[in-house]
Design goal:
Prim-pol fold; alpha+beta; Rossmann fold; 677 residues; globular
């Protein structure tokens, strides 16, 4: 009776709980904290999961390290840098510490290392994830342990609070410890807003690198045309590795001089402006150099002169050094990968823009999308065909899903992605500024449409389309965001997206949207995946939503998408006589005949619409005889809606909401599709 006994107590402490089977959530859409998770009696014997993020920005430092010495060192670092916190142990020496973030935080992690034949890494679990707080560990068959204080002793609001800088410092130090115990296997692609640069942070602690090894490594790192931010980053790394001294300064100057953009005075000004560097150092330089052929993991066999002579050679990795890549980089499960490019295409009025908006909004809100797990992150939607339509699509989505705020922003203006000196740098600056403002990575940039982004260029020209793709690559490489283009089908739909074939060659994921206009159903199909398996089809329909009225009193509408079975016709009517149809009949009467609805904002940020309260609906259904009343308190005269009827009402409302007939919050109910039908 674990979930029933302790789940409610944890909820009172401010934690969002979810029932688990082993480590796996039992509820669909558990990331959105459904009310069903509060049915502690129904899931009485389930393991208890804690959903991270939420009101208190709860995070967990997961030390997934089986080597006792390394795990102990990293735990000590966590306590030193992040503070003492409740500790949960599943399979020792692996352990986890629970904190509060100062701002919403998503997953970040170190690289993965091979330590005595086992994968080892440290991960900060954040929004969109969960951990087991109580239950039986599937491997040890023992209870999870809290050696000292448990979450029962710590209200969520009183957990130790950490900043993004604290987390960066801790992960950098953890990288250093792990690199001292084993060899790197794969880099992390989920390291906050800096993930775009594929950089690993390493603390200079516990020892500084030797000057000659740093000099040898720098010879491998190219500097022909690095971005200003990376030039600054390298200065910090050199100072972090060697300290603030003349030899270190001269070494950075020599590396900077290899660029035509080198300015000795600016280089000196930068060096003097950098204070004490704690979070990056020698390890950062060595691993950046390793990307260009530096022999990582041993003494540098080549002299700096030899390394410089061979610095133009292409990097070569031998089969003996290759390991399986097990660290997933998809932020929409099995569909979209971090820092990649996708194209969503279809004919006009196929629903491709609504499909893309729905997917993007789910990423921004951290909500599971049609059965696929989603990693929360910011989304920027570039609405080149005007911002009016996207505003209404966003308003309709918020209304339908009962969500008032998420990290979703719109750039409602045209941009030129044909000329590299036009708007691409401005777009990159906007993405970086947005990531800084939300203190989280921008996962995805949607460009609607590719044709408008070409700014008059020729889609069939390899030169024009190639320039646009190169600028998209620049956006991806400098921000780490996934870039999605909305595009049109060609005249021959069987040949795919319109334009030159190099677009398909350059794309990581290609998704086709087709529409059966007679059935009123659209189908999305993954036509290409470079690094993931090609998944199945998804059928959906567009459901109209009334957002309000214009100045002439006429309804203003937009659409949301709803999943349907492939090949199915649109469901226009509920089965006559069914429980669902009976409730809808009463709700229609409330709205259309009895004049009960009133104008209200169901939640902050939602438009003014016709609603009724849950209490009004309950009273109406009681008066209509649809809900049964009786003695509910064990005392004569304590009359109310019987438990079975309350459950009937709740289940029916949830079904009608899922079918797209109505929307609801804890306090309000409203009609969808047509407020005045």
């Amino acid at each position: 009776m674990r979930y029933q006994k302790h789940g409610a107590a944890l909820a009172e402490q401010g934690y969002d709980t979810t029932p688990l089977k082993g480590k796996v959530p039992m509820l669909t859409g558990w990331q959105s904290r459904p009310e069903a998770a509060q049915d502690f009696a129904k899931y009485a014997s389930a393991n208890i999961g804690i959903v991270l993020g939420g009101e208190h920005n709860i995070i967990a430092a997961d030390i997934d390290v089986r080597d006792a010495e390394a795990a102990s060192e990293i735990k000590a670092l966590a306590i030193d840098i992040l503070g003492a916190a409740p500790e949960r142990i599943g399979a020792a020496p692996k352990t986890m510490l629970i904190y509060r973030a100062a701002a919403p935080a998503t997953k970040r992690k170190t690289a993965v290392y091979d330590v005595d034949g086992n994968d080892a890494c440290v991960e900060i679990l954040g929004s969109g994830q969960q951990f087991v707080a109580s239950g039986i560990h599937p491997d040890t068959k023992q209870k999870y342990k809290w050696p000292k204080d448990s979450l029962m002793d710590y209200p969520a609001s009183e957990l130790p609070q950490v900043t993004a800088d604290d987390i960066s410092e801790f992960l950098a130090a953890a990288n250093t410890v792990l690199s001292n115990h084993g060899a790197i296997k794969s880099k992390s692609l989920s390291n906050g807003s800096d993930s775009s640069m594929r950089r690993l942070d390493f603390s200079s602690h516990p020892k500084e690198a030797e000057h000659n090894r740093i000099m040898a490594a720098l010879a491998y790192v190219p500097n022909e045309d690095v971005h200003y931010d990376d030039w600054v980053y390298m200065a910090h790394a050199v100072k972090g590795a060697l300290g603030d001294n003349a030899p270190a300064r001269d070494l950075f100057h020599r590396w900077s001089e290899r660029s035509d953009k080198h300015d000795a005075a600016e280089c000196e000004r930068l060096w003097k402006s950098i204070g004490d560097v704690k979070t990056i150092g020698a390890g950062t330089i060595f691993h950046m150099a390793a990307d260009h052929g530096y022999p990582l993991g041993g003494e540098a066999d080549k002299s700096p002169e030899t390394a410089t002579e061979n610095s133009d050679a292409l990097p070569l990795v031998w089969a003996r050094d290759m390991e399986a890549v097990t660290d997933t980089t998809d932020f929409v499960e099995d569909l979209l990968g971090e820092g990649q490019m996708s194209v969503v295409y279809g004919e006009s009025n196929s629903g491709k823009t609504f499909w893309a908006t729905d997917l993007a909004m789910h990423v921004a809100a951290g909500k599971a999308w049609f059965g696929r797990e989603v990693e929360t992150g910011g989304v920027i939607y570039v609405a080149l065909e005007g911002g009016f339509g996207i505003r209404n699509r966003v308003a309709a989505w918020k209304l339908h899903h009962g969500v008032s705020d998420m990290a979703f922003g719109v750039i409602p203006t045209s941009i030129n992605m044909l000329d590299p000196d036009a708007d691409t740098p401005r777009l990159i600056d906007s993405i970086r500024g947005a990531a800084k403002s939300i203190d989280a990575p921008i996962r995805m940039v949607v460009i609607d449409t590719l044709s408008r982004a070409l700014a008059g260029g020729n889609e069939n020209s390899s030169e024009d389309l190639g320039a646009c793709v190169m600028n998209a690559d620049r956006v991806r490489n400098e921000t780490g965001a996934h870039v999605m283009f909305i595009h049109h089908s060609g005249k021959d739909q069987a040949k795919g997206a319109r334009g030159h074939s190099l677009l398909r060659a350059a794309t990581d994921t290609e998704i086709e949207i087709t529409r059966d206009h007679d059935a009123g159903v659209s189908i999305s199909r993954v036509a290409k995946q470079r690094e993931m398996e090609i998944g199945g089809e998804m059928a959906f329909e567009l459901v109209s939503m009334q957002l309000g009225e214009n100045k002439r009193g006429k309804p203003v509408t937009s659409c949301v998408i709803k999943s349907v079975e492939a090949g199915a016709k649109r469901q226009k009517k509920l089965r006559p006589g069914s429980v669902d149809a009976q409730m809808m009949k009463h709700i229609h009467r409330m709205f259309m005949e009895d004049g009960i609805p009133f104008k209200a904002h169901p939640e902050a940020g939602m438009p003014l619409i016709n609603v009724v309260t849950q209490d009004q609906l309950r009273g109406y259904l009681v008066d209509a005889g649809w809900l049964e009343t009786g003695n509910v308190g064990g005392e004569t005269g304590n009359v109310g809606v019987l438990p079975a009827s309350r459950k009937k009402k709740s289940n029916t409302l949830n079904r009608l909401e899922n079918l797209g007939y109505l929307g609801q919050t804890k306090n309000h109910v409203w009609l969808l599709e047509n407020q005045n039908r």
